[in-house]
Specification:
The chain is mainly alpha-helical. The chain folds into 2 domains: 1-64, no CATH class; 66-159, Serine Threonine Protein Phosphatase 5, Tetratricopeptide repeat. Helices cover 70% and strands 0% of the residues. It contains 9 helices and no strands. 36% of the residues are buried. Keywords: Repeat. Residues 3-154 form the PROP1-like PPR domain.
Length: 159
Amino acid sequence: MLLSVCANAQDFDGAFEVMLLMKEAGLKPDCKLYTTLISTCGKCGKVDAMFEVFHEMVNAGVDPNVNTYGALIDGCARAGQVAKAFGVYGIMRSKNVPPDRVVFNALITACGRSGAVDRAFDVLAEMRSEPTSIDPDEFTIGALVKTCIQCGQTFPFHG
């Protein structure tokens, strides 16, 4: 819970301190704790630290889940590191972790930050073609509209 408080406050140093205290107390971080720390790093623009935590997690034998990959993709998107965002997505798919709406929204946001309108709509098409078709929500549409505006294009208000 304390780690979540640090994450919400974007307190990078505090989050690492909490994790260190937990380890010193003999507690083993689980997927949720690692993911929270990764998310905190991403929100603070600490992409390298985010990947260090991810590698520590994997080396500790903790399997990442869709939320972990989503936090990595979101952190890359926030930092404008589109290639890394899609690289994480590729790893996630290779591990047979099915994406969720949050992952797709983060990828669309990453496309917007790089001016890749066509790629953003490709992500939308992939989102809809998932075996359990994922419908866009207000965040998806908002990210697409913002992408179009940033690139000086109009948003196609159909299907």
